[in-house]
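[agent] plan:
  1. take the single chain provided in the ticket
  2. run structure prediction with default settings
  3. attach structure tokens to the ticket
  4. add a short note for the reviewer (M.T.)
[agent] executing step 1
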Amino acid sequence: MSNPVDAVTLAGSVSHDLSMWGLFMQADWIVKLVMLGLLFASLWSWSIIFDKVTRLRRLFKAANEFEDNFWSGRSLEELSEKIGPRPAEPMAAIFMAAMQEWKRATAKGVSLLPSAGGIAHRIERVMQVTLSRELERLQRQMIVLASIGSTAPFIGLFGTVWGIMNSFASIAASKNTSLAVVAPGIAEALFATALGLVAAIPAVVAYNKLSSDFDRYAHKLEAFAGEFGAIISRRLDEKAA
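[agent] step 2 finished; step 3 output follows
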């Protein structure tokens, strides 16, 4: 008859790889899918974070340079010719949209006095539409960060629950409650939760930071559009005088 003590000793002597790779390889296939999905989500969020951070830094720099040129005393027509019809920077795109509307209104030889209000309204409308379109393009994929930040912990928790269920099933099948039997399965399950947090925390922090930076950039564009609209209005008043 076998000795129960020998059986427990034999069970405890079975080695388990508790490294991250070992935990992944020993996990159930559903838990593996959860881990792979969370790893992909983490890499995806980091690629978005890197892209948005570098782009915002470049846009703020380009906006400051454009404002320096705009307020340098150079004529609006000369500045528009230098920028070209398809600017890549949003502030320059707002400027060019307004200038193109201005040129269309004046190129036909229409008297500005009776239609000054209409022209000013169209120019302001064009700038607002361009501003909204540029911001929408810049904020694309921000919803991905929000989704990863809100769902990744629950996906990891699902993997943990599934792994713990398998651990209890193994305990029931082996009729052995030794820590050596329970610990590996619990570790694999908790590893899924850890991956969920690894994916979620950077996504949430980056989403909040990037949202704040996008708000600052949007206010910068709105301020420029308002100032440029005032300049256009003054020009119309001068024409009407």
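[agent] step 4 note for reviewer: The chain has one domain: 19-240.
[agent] ticket updated
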